[in-house]
Amino acid sequence: MRSMLFVPGDSSRKFEKASEGKADALIIDLEDSVVTEKKDEARKLTLQMLRDRRGPHQLYVRVNALDTGMTLADLAAVMPGAPDGIVLPKSRGGDDVRQLATWLEAFEAAAGTKVGSTRIVCVATETAGSIFGLGTYKDCSPRLAGLMWGAEDLSASLGATEKASGGVFHSPYRLARDLCLMAAAAAEVAPIDTVYTDIDNLAGLEQETRAARRDGFSAKALIHPKHVDIVNAAFEPTEAERTWAEKVIAAFASNPNSGTLRLDGMMIDKPHLRAAKKILGQP
């Protein structure tokens, strides 16, 4: 999964447009994009969107945060539509995932859905306190599929006046980004890069996405349909990377009892083999 496009939960029109694109996943949003007065309406529309799904997209629903008191109402409304996953905003750590997983088990059983089938993605850096919970996601639940970092709410939590300048995040946000990446790697789940908010700056989007892939992120969250193709392309391995990966895999296949090999004048070992398999999407 490379691209996860947010779609407002109160707009069937935007959902239909998003469904025509090539995002790997759509996140139907019941949180920030829906005002309080329209939450009930959005829940009903979201259920209909789930039932009217078209195309190969995975469908996630971003519910309201646990501390709002609205999460259970969100889940009760949408779980009969069997979403592929739930996005939990303002997650504080593994205990929040365990709480959500317990609720999902009950809703799956009530809806006749296979118990354990609904995945969880956490937005894991939206408050100052959440940074200290990043090390608690490992082994918290087999449902956990990814950790996403976000800067918008974190900025408010910190009381900051600016997140970035010249297209470069300031140090608190780079710290959150890097720690989220490491937490996801430690938990063996997908690290998901934050949304790009300069909508018409497509060159900047490509640059940021390529930097995310370079550092180890495997997907990016999006807020506009025209970003999808750029992000998908940026996460595809280059021809040079494919060639290198194929050569590494072939070298170890020819020397199955060797832990270290020489390839094109460079030393390679098993971490290089794991990286090569990741590039080619091999287990």
Automatic annotation (TrEMBL):
GO biological process: oxaloacetate metabolic process
Alphabetical list of SUPFAM superfamilies matching this protein: Phosphoenolpyruvate/pyruvate domain
Molecular-function annotations in GO: lyase activity; magnesium ion binding
Residues at which substrate binds: R62, E126
Domain HpcH/HpaI aldolase/citrate lyase positions: 2-225
Keywords (A to Z) from UniProt: Lyase, Magnesium, Metal-binding
Lineage top rank: taxon: Bacteria
Cofactor: Mg(2+)
Residues annotated as binding Mg(2+): E126, D153
A UniProt-annotated Pfam family: HpcH_HpaI
Family membership noted in the UniProt record: Belongs to the HpcH/HpaI aldolase family.
Name this polypeptide is given: Citrate lyase
Organism: Bradyrhizobium neotropicale
